[in-house]
């Protein structure tokens, strides 16, 4: 089924790899002109060329910027003042002991994982409401509702995104603009794949075997017993961006592979 997104424009933050790149690719597959964002200009250019080659009917553009930096963020908004879709994907994470998390680290995570996304949303939302059309999606995590304790500073920011999404969604009442949050479970990003490969150095093991062993021993609560593939999250994001998902408003949408044990 086509998603009726042809010729829409989408800004996908942190889209040079992982979930962000997958979302950008899946949007481009539906005819969306994607704005590729990352801090490294060369990385951004590489993805822009990759998407243009794969989907030549679309016009992917370089939106390189460190969106945590207010001046760079404002310059980006000035360069791309109008988008139909905003995917707030960019974020940082790291396993940390609670007692080692300083106030500076807390603030860094807040500025990176929350305020950058809020700054973009604050700019684009009024324009979307004026046009009575638009989509904003925040990428959170199962950590938002089921903190593991391994990354308190990360989990806090992802919980905040759920609250922010709901608050902003209330402002869209009566309009065709929607704001929602996707909560992925453990996902096979490039970084995660490298970690798994590094944990199991036995050359006779296939990656599938390494993945299975890791999940059994480290993620027993997962129902799918494998990592979620970024493309799976990409397809979900595409649906949420489509006209067919207009009834999703302020929704925290779980795509966690069964990690969260509760029924709601």
From TrEMBL:
It comes from the Bacteria. InterPro entries: NAD(P)-bd_dom_sf, SDR, SDR_fam. Gene3D superfamilies: NAD(P)-binding Rossmann-like Domain. Belongs to the short-chain dehydrogenases/reductases (SDR) family. This is Oxidoreductase. It comes from Terribacillus saccharophilus. The lineage of its organism: Bacteria, Bacillati, Bacillota, Bacilli, Bacillales.
